[in-house]
Amino acid sequence: MSTVDHIEALKSKHATLEQAIHQEITRPHPDDDALCSLKKRKLMIKDEIVRLSEPASH
After folding, report:
1. Given a cut of 60, is residue 58 above it in pLDDT?
2. Does any domain span residue 54?
3. pTM listed for this prediction
4. Cα separation of 32 and 15, whole Å?
């Protein structure tokens, strides 16, 4: 898998997590632990996207 393909896959996962967060927030009684976990995973994926998108510095 190329870096570009990997970044695209991560962006898709990021969008899926965004939807899951939105669904959890809009529930009558959101689960704070689930929200925290989803947000952490989303942030980890965002950090990975940024890391892969940056030009390599040697």
Report:
1. no
2. no
3. 0.86
4. 20
